[in-house]
């Protein structure tokens, strides 16, 4: 049986950072750059949570996110050797459910609906690996956690790190003791 | 830590049988009763899968389902002792995603978005118990499967059976060796 990998959407398959900054500027007039975000937790960066929630609840936000660089190629390669699941904590934003499903159909059509999971808490998801950017998910997952670099986790070092999708294949080989 | 229970929606929390029969009649003119359905697999009952898919994709189908008798009271009681998750294979019908989320907010407002999972294949869900009506889920679940009676499973006997929500509390006590 193939080993299984759960892959997060926002910040991992979908590149959210520029879109959040652009929509935040439109909403508040405040200009921030990717560099301003680095190493700062979401709570500090967006102290007014209501504004952030308003943005994330706007129609189109999730549907129009760009695909993370290298994700399509890497996922296609992973699917040859692993059972790949997309696991997104979409439940907090009900409007995102349909948009995320449509987004996946457009950008990752090879991933079956059987392998898509929209949830809240990810702690009941049991796969061999979890690729995610949030420690709230990685710290409690049942498999091996792999931390995908995002602005809020650059100063954390308690998980294996993935800085770009082109590193994933070699990292998994190394973790499984296969010579790279 | 509380033990965890995953509970299916269609046929378990939501009573789908009458609604399918009513909408099927409206679509095809064919009249069937609950008794006609008993013991027959879905594939035999609805040989034209396209009609069934059409019904399940119609706006409002999932949003207007009645709550299964006794489910509200039983779930409220379970939540006192267990971590209760709702786990629905909603991904096959993308339009159902928002409707199912709304339905849960209306009928089970105490269940947090953190404890709701919409998926395809349930085999990566790891909870101590799974209450479901489909063997395709029960046969491969990681915890203890509990089969909720539905027309298509009345002749199966390889799992513990729940015929009504008012049996659940005593069944769980028995399984855990607590005197009822």
Record keyword descriptors for this entry.
six-stranded parallel sheet; homodimer; 6 strands; globular; 180 residues; 8 helices; Rossmann fold
Report the top-level CATH class of the largest domain in chain A: Alpha Beta
Give the class of chain A from helix and strand content and strand pairing. Answer: alpha/beta
What is the number of E strands of chain A? 6
Largest interface: A-B, 26 and 26 residues
Residue fraction in strands of chain A = 15-25%
Q: Whole-number radius of gyration of chain A?
A: 16 Å
CATH architecture of the largest domain in chain A: 3-Layer(aba) Sandwich
Give the low-confidence spans of chain A.
none
Tally of alpha and pi helices of chain A: 8
Mean pLDDT of chain A: 95
Give helix % range of chain A. Answer: 25-40%
Strand order of the largest sheet of chain A: 3-2-1-4-5-6
Explain what this protein looks like in three dimensions.
The structure is a homodimer of 180-residue chains. Chain A is α/β, with parallel strands linked by helices and 180 residues long. Chain A folds into 2 domains: 3-15 and 65-175, Rossmann fold (3-Layer(aba) Sandwich), CATH 3.40.50.1000; 17-56, no CATH class. In chain A, 35% of the residues lie in helices and 15% in strands. Chain A contains 8 helices and 6 strands; from the N terminus they run E-H-H-H-H-H-E-H-E-E-H-E-E-H. Chain A has helices at residues 17-28, 34-37, 42-45, 49-56, 71-81, 96-107, 135-138, 168-175; strands spanning 3-7, 82-88, 116-118, 129-132, 144-148, 160-162. A 6-stranded parallel sheet of chain A has the order 3-2-1-4-5-6. In chain A, helix 1 (17-28) packs across helix 4 (49-56). Chain A is globular. Chains A and B meet through helix 6 and strand 3 of A and helix 6 and strand 3 of B.
